[in-house]
Design brief:
repressor (chains A, B), 434 Repressor (Amino-terminal Domain), six-stranded mixed β-sheet, HTH-type transcriptional regulator DegA (chains A, B), Rossmann fold, homodimer, DNA-binding, 3 domains
DNA sequence: CGACTATATTGAAACGTTTCCAATAGGGTG
DNA sequence: CACCCTATTGGAAACGTTTCAATATAGTCG
């Protein structure tokens, strides 16, 4: 593999000159540039990015740490994150934690060893305390500390919106169901928005949380249907969960939206052709992704931000379930 | 940031010794090891992986180059690939090409500059000619050359299976629809399997390919429904496309599986709770992913393989559309 | 024409590891 | 006691780049 030295040798110049040609830094005589470029071509020289990273003591690598890329919301997010990073000349490293705290820690450790330029995290742990370096981190949907900027959608408003739409669709007793990640999660606000709005409107409501991880799914659903057979509206914490609920309901002969109106959360695109098309609170996935990257790269570039949470607006999208 | 030198200084030994302690290479007296470990702890020393990569002239990074991670089949694949890589101490870099040839080339170039240890590719180009280094590559569903090992599912058998199942479900005139990536694609075999089996069984059939990229989707479907209104079975190149077809058909008052039986391809998990649950030819995603990684790491480790295509079995999965 | 300036180029140090060779210290053996 | 062998350690080179101070070259102006 040809190195910069070989190029310099063949072109009859010093390595520093070759470096300046490659990086367009400093002044180089056109004639010299030509010679160097000629040599580069002849030797089929490719700059060694590893050596560069080493010299610079930083890599243009950003890590995305999330539960699993196979969840459609995350994969959509990942797509836009990678796209935005690429525009800025950065690369993306993908880390599936499986939501396991110990795996999150393991990855964080590895990422620091690898001196990644920054991390976008969607984690279960409060990762602030477990990162010893001052590596920039942007978190999505989790608020940990001043240091870690959080990008989220307006979960509180999303919860309120869901409640209002369920009521508007005719629900007299709406229920909130789903997993509420306890640790610093913005997602909890979906519940509080829902609850607050119900109280404000004087509507009877139910909250039926799903343990995570769940031991006995059948029992969870059976109990819900038994205890709350008067529920006629359901707001689920995400689209997949909403679909799952509908599946269970229909097995019991409950029709959607006839007997029960259902609203999900996320607004996943890849489900567009499948039925029922969910009524859902759509998060601005693309905007969240690009915002997260912009904030991260800002931090990497040395900017500091006064704001520690960036909250983007959500939207109600009508489907076939309300 | 503390370096190996600082550790050596504090422990009163040479850097080489510290290196041997860290890597458990060579002999180190227990007493010395203790001193070094003590120093490492005191300084909160983290080995600089970049420097290591540099010295070794290789990184433990494998790239996954695919059209888009937001497609559920690819995201499922990516999940298992990352999982398998992590087990072996490798990291995954994610590259979305958007199926654009120029972007594929751009990424391949970048990956070579970054001296990634290997590449798993799902590409549109014949990438063989555009990779100048001898970096190991495993391709999924594309067969280019001896050099690039191809991991695929049994697309030919999948096509035959689809035809047989459509006929078994009562179809008299089944159609193959979908995109047929021309370049060295294993996916073409889905078509040939379908066609061959139809001929073998003496069944009347239709092939209606979808251009890629498609200009006018409405026109494509309209023409299909006009020209082939006697078609009563559809085999689509993938699940998403099958769902899309069903959507279009139902808008025209065609019922599935009443009027037309439909079989998709892939067997995407994240659609399990949505309807109609597709009858589909399921690819062994997990096995494909793990096989691809194993072969790639084998190559990285210097093994050479006599076989250039690894074909895994597919399975018919009954849903609600046949 | 000499002094200055602007432009081009050189050469070497430095980044943090690993690895190899030489050096040293013990420990056993004849 | 001399010798050899092994276990352990030290020291330095090397990996390929960037950067910076120093030097060289060529105009320009008075």
């Amino acid at each position: 593999m040809a190195s910069i030295k070989d190029v310099a040798g063949l072109a009859g110049v010093a390595v520093g000159t070759v470096s300046r040609v490659i990086n367009h830094s400093g002044a180089v005589k056109p004639e010299t540039r030509r010679k160097v470029e000629e040599a580069i071509k002849r030797l089929n020289y490719i700059p060694n990015e590893i050596a560069r990273n080493f010299k610079m003591q930083k890599s243009k690598m950003v890590a995305l740490l999330l539960p699993t890329i196979s969840h459609p919301f995350f994969s959509e997010l990942a797509y836009y994150i990678e796209d935005e990073l690429d525009r800025e000349g950065y690369k993306l490293m993908l880390c599936n934690s499986g939501s396991k705290p110990e795996k999150e820690l393991y990855y964080l450790d590895m990422l620091q060893q690898n001196k990644v330029a920054g991390i976008v995290g969607i984690t279960y742990n409060d990762i602030d305390s477990s990162v010893s370096t001052d590596i920039p981190i942007v978190s999505i949907d989790r608020h940990f500390s001043k240091r870690i900027i959080c990008v989220t959608s307006d979960n509180y408003e999303g919860g309120r919106l869901a409640l209002r739409e369920l009521v508007r669709a005719g629900a007299k007793k709406p229920a909130f169901i789903g997993t509420v990640i306890p640790v610093s999660s913005e997602i909890m606000k979906r519940k509080s928005g829902f609850v607050q709005e119900a109280k404000a409107m004087g509507v009877d409501y139910v909250v039926y949380e799903k343990p995570d991880p769940i031991i006995d799914e059948d029992k969870y659903y059976n109990e819900f249907f038994m205890r709350h057979d008067d529920v006629d509206g359901v707001f689920a914490t995400n689209d997949m969960f909403a679909a799952q609920y509908i599946e269970r309901a229909s097995r019991r002969g409950i029709s959607v939206p006839g007997d029960v109106k259902v609203i999900g959360y996320d607004g996943i695109q890849s489900h567009a052709y499948f039925h029922p098309v969910l009524s859902t609170i759509r998060q601005p996935v693309e905007e969240m992704a690009r915002t997260a990257v912009k904030l991260l790269l800002g931090q990497i570039g040395g900017e500091s931000f006064h704001q520690d949470t960036y909250c983007l607006p959500v939207m109600y999208r009508q489907g076939e379930t309300t």
